Amino acid sequence: MEQLIRAAIGGQQEAFEQLIETEKSKLLSKAYSYVGNREDASDIVQETLLQAYKSIHQLKEAKYFSTWLFKILIRQCFAFIRQRKRTLVVETELIQQQLTEHEQPAAYEFVHEALSLLRKDYQTVLVLFYFYDFPVREIASLLDKPINTIKMHLHRGRNQLKKQLEQQMNLPVTEKEVIYMLKEQLAQSALNFVSIPQDYQLFVEDYSNEQAKFIWATDELVDEIGVTLDQNGKLIELTRLPSTNGTLATIEQQETIAEQFLTSQYAEALDYLSLSNVIQKEGDSRFFYKQYAGGYPLASYTTQISVSTYGEIVDFKYGGYTKTPPVFPAQLVGEEAILQQLHKAPWKLSLKYLASDIYSVPKAGLYPVYESPIVYHSFNALNGLPAFEHEPEEPDTFIPFPNVAAVEKQATIEEAIGVPEEMIKLREVEIDENTLVAVWREREWQAPKDKTMESLFLDRMEDTVKAKVDKHSGRLKEFMWFKERTGELDLSFEDCRDIACTFIATYFEEYLPYLQLKIEKPSFNGVHCVFFTFPLYAVQDLQIEGERFYVGVNRTTGFIDIFWSPRMDLAELQSFEASTIQPFEDIKSALQKVEPFLQWSKKYDENEPDDVLAYKLGQIETKQQVVGIDARTGDLIVSNI
């Protein structure tokens, strides 16, 4: 992992992209815990990653990458919270009400009763510090108070709480016992929402950043059961296992069950939220509730509820609502101004592998597509200007795949990857009908003792080797070392390139006629690994977007630490016929089926409100997002999601 971080510090964009893939889910979870809304959290993560990419060269110690990245995220969260003028208040009355409703042991009543007798600022600081594990500096930033004031409130609040508890319980009480009782109460509240099978165990019990998160699962971490509560014990997210039998519920009954559950948790929710969409699947129906302003849904507030065919709530994600929605503008720019930009925009031919469940194509396969950045733009509805201008990128340079000889193949996947005998296979999991994932780690590795989300991540990733293998052929698809390897070698850039090429020539010889090598500056950038990209081409000038071999070679060991292969089947590539592609001028009439449609979007910059009205480009009948034009048929291709 550390060599990948150093590659990113040195300017390797693909190394940075690989890093953020491993961190993104943690960042999203952390941001969500601060702002309580998935769309806001997603925006914060994107801004965090943008700031990180711009400043990663300033990171001096690779081992502090995660800490550094999360500090950027926290700053972004605080900026968002302050801008929303959000005030943090500990509502002890609600906690006390929960205790009464669920008849928790009397010790919990003493804790919260004693807490409720303290000054409100003492309550807030104590709960943030002891219950949600906020550092003093973060509490000071969140509450906009000096650090010394927070320390004083902690000291005085701690003493007063201890005295209150000892008076009420007539027993000496330690601080550790107080914390235990607070956390145990929230854990018991979580169990009111779920039933845990005997073969499940608790993997996550995380009380950080204004929420309590619990995840139960089997050893393989599949079919998870999860509960997330806010600081007052209110349900934020819920995932449960569906029953396999029972009385079937109609779609009308499922909708009633969804709304009853929503109002049982948030009594006022349906005063602000309306059903916007229903997606029916084989095992459940998913209901989307959004808040509308001027007849259009707000981007910031979406609640999702999934109800099984047997009438059970199996998934719940609460997105909140606002009592002060934005006002619909009195005057908008005309749609013609947007359409003019569409017809003037540049279009280029690309080759994409498209899946039929994601895009409006008859079947999954390789498609020549005319595309333009303009179809992804949002246009401010007041002035017609794009939210973001796409700057032109410098074109890359490619050469034919180097002429290297194959070597003898290793007998096993472990040998091909370089897994030593002292590492054992931890697990092998089927992630889809065609792919197995295998994970290795040294026997003596010690797992973290707590159950935070970060510890779960370390337990599943730290010092491991992960590989994806084709379930049917046993062929290697990709692998990555999350354990740093160092050796005594000092290989040149060219030596490492030859190692990468030889590996592909040995194990993927049939791809060689369709590969080129991306030319990059010969530099290790102060790290052990150097990375090579081999894009896949259908014909000489037509690269397949996103389909490539990507290889990272460790110059100190001569081993490959990172390897990704193309996703698509080679047969698709071999059967592709470029002669069926039509000139753009002959099929650009498809743009007549595109029109601007209004929607509330997230703000463009900090000087604008949380939600702004914007135009997007979509298909006239369905308003689905346009992706491009099929270069063979002239049909519009739109996104199904």
Description:
The protein has 641 residues and is an alpha+beta fold. The longest helix has 23 residues, at 13-35. A hairpin with an 8-residue loop joins strand 21 (594-602) and strand 22. Helix 5 packs antiparallel against helix 6 and helix 8 packs across helix 9. Residues 84-109 have low confidence and may be disordered. The strands form 5 sheets. The protein has an 8-stranded antiparallel sheet. Helix content is 34%, strand content 26%. The radius of gyration is 28 Å and the shape is globular. It has 18 helices and 24 strands.
Structural class: alpha+beta
In terms of per-residue confidence, which ranges show pLDDT below 50 for 5 or more consecutive residues?
A: 84-109
Mean pLDDT: 81
Rg for CA atoms: 28 Å
State which percent range the strand residues make up: 25-35%
Specify the helix fraction band.
25-40%
Tally of strands: 24
Largest sheet: 8 strands, antiparallel
Coarse shape: globular
C-alpha termini separation: 33 Å
| Widest β-sheet, arrangement of strands | 1-2-3-4-8-7-6-5
Separate helix tally? 18
Architecture blueprint of SSEs:
Layout: H1 2-9, H2 13-35, H3 38-55, H4 65-83, H5 92-102, H6 106-116, H7 120-131, H8 136-143, H9 147-169, H10 175-191, E1 201-206, E2 211-217, E3 225-230, E4 235-239, H11 251-265, H12 269-272, E5 273-280, E6 284-293, E7 296-308, E8 313-317, H13 335-344, E9 348-354, E10 365-371, E11 379-380, E12 398-400, H14 413-417, E13 423-432, E14 435-442, H15 453-461, E15 465-470, E16 476-481, H16 493-507, E17 516-518, E18 529-539, E19 542-554, E20 560-564, H17 570-574, H18 584-587, E21 594-602, E22 611-619, E23 626-630, E24 636-638
Antiparallel strand pairs: 1-2, 2-3, 3-4, 4-8, 5-6, 6-7, 7-8, 9-10, 10-23, 11-22, 12-17, 13-14, 14-15, 15-16, 16-20, 18-19, 19-20, 21-22, 23-24
Helix pairs in contact: 1-2, 2-3, 2-4, 3-4, 5-6, 6-9, 6-10, 7-9, 8-9
